[in-house]
Amino acid sequence: MFRRGSLALVAGTATTALTLAACSPGSSGEPDGGGSEDSATVTFRLWDDAAAAAYEESFEAFTEANPDITVDVETVPWANYWDRLPQDIGSGTMADIFWTNTSNFGIYADNGNLIDIGAEIGADQDELVQSAVDLYTRNGAEWGVPQLTDSIALYYNADLLAEAGVDPSSLQWDPSGTNDTFLGAALDLTVDASGVTAAEDDFDAENIEQYAFNAQNDLQAIYIDFLGSNGARYQDGDQYAFNTPEGAESFQYLVDLINTYHVSPSAAETNQNGDLARDLFVQGKMALFQSGQYSLPHMADAEFDWGIAPMLEGPDGRVGVVHSVAAVGNAETEHPEATLEVLRWLSTAEGQEPLGANGAAFPAAVDAQSSFVDYWTEQGVDTSEFIAAAEGETIAAPLGPRANAGANAIAPYFEEMFAGRLPVQEALQQAQDAANEAIAE
Hints:
Elements: H1 10-14, E1 40-46, H2 49-65, E2 69-75, H3 78-91, E3 97-100, H4 105-110, H5 117-121, H6 130-135, E4 137-138, E5 141-142, E6 145-150, E7 152-157, H7 158-164, H8 182-189, E8 191-192, E9 208-210, H9 219-229, E10 235-236, E11 239-240, H10 245-259, H11 267-270, H12 276-282, E12 288-292, E13 306-309, E14 320-321, E15 323-329, H13 336-346, H14 349-357, H15 369-378, H16 384-391, E16 394-395, H17 403-418, H18 424-440
Parallel strand pairs: 1-2, 1-3, 14-16
Antiparallel strand pairs: 3-15, 4-5, 6-15, 7-12, 7-13, 8-9, 10-11
Helix pairs in contact: 2-14, 14-15, 17-18
């Protein structure tokens, strides 16, 4: 359990900006001033400033061991990253190595734009989180070197739970109601302005001061985990497959938490502000907040005792999503051997250790994960539940060469469903049909 105090600098650490040099593959053919004819500059692109600073530290150690290879790091903001990526690949100006996520790598793998990591360096990699490796394995080939991973657990306000007599590690949701311990706890943890809980008859749902949980239209932290915990799927291969009886039960449960029981903020609010629930938790106005490691830095402002418990358990147990960011190699690099050497480095615990050392990200190299754990242990935070979630049963993150098109097609139907304006079964059918049509175009 953690009390506010020693986390004061964490939020700043995770958002530190750093201006970094960069150049395109086409500009790195000549040796740097004073370098030998055999020297090479490998370019590396990503979207996160805090991670970029960690990579600068990592690549200093790499260049000490490989003095003929320099790595230039370029940050492109997330808002522009995915627009520039296809343009730069098409024009031949893409970096030698670049970050990608599971929703975006498939089309480049299928188009022959990426280096086959498994064929080129498979045996030279350190042990990486297997669920992350699986995410970047497509058509029998391994296309990325996982760098960071996110798994899901349950942040809790210890004071509010103690007052209500709730043990966060024992909470189970069950659409049949047979083994459900979560709903009753959520009703007790939701309180109106008069101090009346949602479990009481005179509860005022129009004037809520404290919510129980962050049920909302959030794929990574909420609904894909509920699907997995109820034996449902999000996708079957590249096809969307959430419109099943188990899928409908999962979404109906979430929608009811919002619109029937009022234990979560309205979708009218969370559809517009995806961070609303996180902010309410930090302000002490939400008792339970299911999320990933990426929310840790935001806990710096919490002025109460908080802790991290296992994610909610469903009928099929605790089944969460593990998302991963990977480094992929540009198949058109002008420096193939140097690029492979850098990719080998990025697959080692030594190469990834700086990513976890400032607490900003959880390395995918198993032996580097202690750097992240040790950082947060020094802050008084036990992150073991995230490791347990990553090592446990998981449901795949969104995949496929047109996963973004599928997500865009789904969005309007899910917004209406979570708002209670479109029945769950109808919304799922329409969303699934639209998504599968979108990825087929």
